[in-house]
């Protein structure tokens, strides 16, 4: 992967000036490359990575396994596109194995998520079954540990 | 009680008493305990030891692999090191007779010197350099002979300078590239010329290549890759820098059997063996640690670019080092000595760097900045240094 993308994955807020120095190039070049990646749809957005356990919120998250009937034309894509339009669905993947779609869903309460599954997802044409698992705690997200390892405890000066 | 009764200081041997205190130690005492200091003075990776390596160490303890090992090191580790030397350094060493696992490169270095030196033998070493070389030569009853390296050569060691210092009493040549504190590296013509010099003057070469995995450009040019030098080379390497394993204290020496055997004699009586737990961790590192090295190397590489660009931009001249994790900017344009510069930077801006003079007289006028620290503190440190340099210029 391009080192620029690697750096942005680690810290999307890095300034163009710093990125230019890190990569041994100019700020203009950095801006042009980022713009090109956005244009090509490689970069789809920049988001903050939150430890929601530390937030004062009752939001609940669930993982939902969905079995769906593929269609003769288009396979899973048409059903997936319909499901993906629900704002409750944060992420969705087509999977190999015992089920077809894996959904990460967010709601304001257990009840709200349960209603979403029973009233919206399960009745959809083509959905064969659902299995819902509520998430209890986040340990690691996007490669980042929610509780960091201990602070830098190296000697302050050493040979 | 007689008048010539000895007190504690009198029991210290004269050659130890006369050892100067390390310049780094001086500076450490000043920095120690201060809060909010951003330190670019740490000669140690900032990464945690890769988890798969730590996990193997835990597993070694669980399994009870906590006993003495063979003096030379475990057969598995020595076999893995022989394979690593072949693959990464194009050098053939017989794991049964030519590889010795040690407690860090520091012990290997000490063993090498004690194995080869007789009192009064001279040893050539290049400055600026790691602080331990001259004291270890002295404690092995040798005579350290510094050879200068210069900014104009990007701190590479030249044969012309060596020729000025070599005498009939010279026994060995010490090398450390990529270099702490300058980040200097050798290219192929340098290693060939140094090998010819050693052969011409009938010297042994001790090459400490502990930073070799952290080479960013220009390829890795090791003394171990020169076949005609093989019979007079003690090659030293370790796990601390490559795999961020400083606290494991694990290193090794590769040398022809008679030299390995001589070092082993001292090691077996003085140390017995390296930590068995560390050896298990080291085996994991050398077998499965390539991805971890690549990731850390890429990160250092980018940070080096950042620091060199920032320092040059603020008017502190420095060349682009191709290895290790140090840059060695000149602070001569500020009119301060390197110690004054470092002290004021610490006292007024809370940034710690080591004055170049701590690494030998010819390091005066320079500063060692280690970029083995996270991007955020590094950025902050560069901002503070820029403010300091601007204030000095007014």
Molecular structure report:
The complex is a heterodimer of chains A (159) and B (394). Chain A is α+β, with helices and mostly antiparallel strands. Chain A contains 5 helices and 6 strands. Chain A is extended. In chain A, helix 2 (16-23) packs across helix 3 (27-40). Chain A folds into 2 domains: 3-40, Orthogonal Bundle (Arc Repressor Mutant, subunit A); 52-136, Alpha-Beta Plaits (2-Layer Sandwich). Chain A is 31% helix and 21% strand. The model of chain A has no long low-confidence stretch (mean pLDDT 93). The longest helix of chain A has 14 residues, at 27-40. Chain B is of the alpha/beta class. The model of chain B has no long low-confidence stretch (mean pLDDT 96). Chain B contains 13 helices and 12 strands. In chain B, helix 3 (51-63) crosses helix 10, helix 4 (75-89) packs parallel to helix 10 and helix 11 (290-313) runs parallel beside helix 13 (375-393). Chain B is 41% helix and 12% strand.
Offer a quick outline of the entry.
The complex is a heterodimer of chains A (159) and B (394). Chain A has 159 residues and is α+β, with helices and mostly antiparallel strands. Chain A has helices at residues 3-10, 16-23, 27-40, 77-84, 110-121; strands at residues 60-68, 89-94, 101-107, 127-134, 140-141, 144-145.
